[in-house]
Amino acid sequence: xxxxxxxxxxxxxxxxxxxxxxxxxxxxxxxxxxxxxxxxxxxxxxxxxxxxxxxx
Length: 56
Known about the structure:
This is Large ribosomal subunit protein bL33m. It contains no helices and four strands.
């Protein structure tokens, strides 16, 4: 067993985030992102709004 000063959850490189549609339809999905990079912004099809929206 390793003895570290920081908790184990801080050692993970990826984190699970919930992306919410910017169109305001309430559509959301889960994805992984790198913990060390900037915020994730994706362009994805929103099935409730029938259009492509930017999720942040």
